[in-house]
Inverse folding.
């Protein structure tokens, strides 16, 4: 099959190569999925699981890309809950080969059915950003209606999901970003917008939940805004800052069938809008990931047209 | 750390050796658990996942044992939901290092909290039979109150859980086994018992659900007893046996935190009795697994006393 592989961590996206690889086999409780659309996050290339397995053994050449939407073509020994021919979407295991390929083997529990009226491109754009926002807001942040949320990067892939899901849950959302992101953040449902380069972050007053996607100084200053009993949720690694009287939770997103189903239902009925930018073919993917201009929205690779 | 390893599939349990191994490291979303009690199923030594990883690469020396109860001693990068010092129980990944060892690294979502009033030995004994029975009856068999269940091996590790959970759910349970198992099966809640060596299986009439742990001829004959719309659920692997008007589902269990919590709650309040036979130390474990007499109940290795 055709697949994109990486072998050299220092090379970054410039080291991506489109090659021929053997088709993966379904392990116990796996399915094999024919990938129709794939999503890739550039930071994957800095993550240990892209380069080594859980026993810390070299696993190169590795196939990056961990979001997918496609069709099940085979079941592993003992696999239940999904059928051959079923449309699915989800998040592949970080320690296994990914989705920038014609086929991927993946544990069935990491996938959910993709309804027939949701496009594969849309399906592949949702898992990381949707699950990250869902888990940060509801599982780790325990968000309640009436609370306030500071959503960093509110026009970005994760931040736009955070903004929309928090609004739907009845929260008051203050978005942040660069000046050029203001209108987009407000369109996603933010009630206020803080331009991190020109406005004073401290001007927002107290909030119940900070959803941090930036870290560093912004994280520290955001922690200072959290009210008693509030939470700093972050996806940029162990938190350096803690609210004076509250929790800091750092987490890595995990796939979850029930949550994927909640998310895609919201896309179908219009409560969630996706933020798709460029759509490229697998043959053009390496060039697309190496383009230099700042991308608006998420790049999705359409593996099958 | 001390651990039991296997390197030779043909040797069976005679090939088990107690050796010194490096302590495992917690990967992303893992916890490291200090094992207090471990459960091992002899079938493990015939599973491909004991000998190779998901890419089909040799992973010997492998540490067998999939069930565990113990205490969390470290969290991996990004791990949430469990804390250091917490008592936990559940299943390790069958493709990774097992629990016949002083420490094991496991994905946090494969574990649940073990309440303070449930012994580690009990915790390690309920994970696999409890999840197998739960998933077979409720997820795959869609059991309803008032239906009838044919529970094969009703005095065994899985069958005794099937019998108890089905009875609690309002089903009529017909247990099977060998003649000496009769009283035990009835004590676990079976309303009838079929001695597979001396009674005629076909005399039980129609049933809604067969829980097969045996396969072969018994599996085939059981399929013939299933009423229209009923289900044959089996853990004995893919089978040709099919009800005339119903489903056959073969499955391999998947660890599930919510289901583990349901199961342990039933152990606490007396609705579920475990079926523990011999309890040995890790030093005596190889000898315990190589005894020739038929074990009564599940063997548990108490790694820490």
């Amino acid at each position: 099959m055709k697949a994109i592989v990486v072998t050299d961590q220092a090379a970054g996206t410039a080291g991506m190569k489109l090659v021929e690889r053997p088709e993966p086999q379904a392990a116990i409780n796996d399915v094999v999925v024919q990938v129709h659309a794939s999503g890739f996050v550039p930071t994957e290339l800095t993550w240990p699981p892209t380069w080594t397995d859980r026993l810390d053994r070299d696993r190169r050449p590795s196939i990056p890309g961990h979001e997918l939407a496609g069709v099940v073509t085979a079941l592993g020994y003992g696999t239940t809950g999904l059928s051959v021919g079923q449309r699915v979407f989800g998040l592949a295991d970080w320690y296994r080969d990914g989705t920038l390929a014609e086929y991927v083997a993946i544990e069935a529990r990491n996938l959910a059915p993709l309804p027939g009226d949701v496009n594969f491109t849309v399906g592949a754009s949702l898992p990381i950003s949707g699950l990250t926002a869902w888990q940060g807001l509801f599982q780790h942040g325990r968000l309640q209606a009436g609370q306030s949320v500071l959503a960093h990067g509110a026009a970005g892939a994760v931040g736009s999901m955070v903004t929309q899901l928090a609004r739907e849950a009845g929260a008051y959302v203050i978005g942040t970003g660069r000046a050029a992101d203001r209108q987009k953040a407000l369109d996603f449902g933010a009630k206020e917008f803080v331009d991190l380069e020109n406005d004073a972050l401290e001007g927002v007053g107290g909030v119940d939940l900070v959803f941090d996607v930036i870290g560093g100084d912004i994280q520290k200053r955001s922690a200072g805004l959290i009210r008693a009993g509030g939470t700093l949720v972050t996806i940029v690694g162990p938190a350096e800052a803690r609210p004076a009287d509250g929790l800091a939770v750092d987490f890595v997103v995990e796939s979850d069938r029930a949550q994927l189903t909640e998310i895609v239902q919201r896309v179908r009925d219009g409560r969630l809008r996706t933020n798709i930018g460029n759509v490229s073919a697998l043959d053009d993917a390496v060039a697309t990931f190496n383009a230099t201009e700042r991308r608006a929205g998420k790049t999705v690779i359409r593996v099958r047209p």
User: Anything to note?
Assistant: Chain B has seven helices and 15 strands. The CA atoms of residues 207 and 226 of chain B lie 5 Å apart. Chain B touches chain A at residues 25, 27-30, 47-49, 53-56, 59, 77-81, 94-97, 105, 109, 139-140, 237-238, 249-252, 254 (CB under 8 Å).
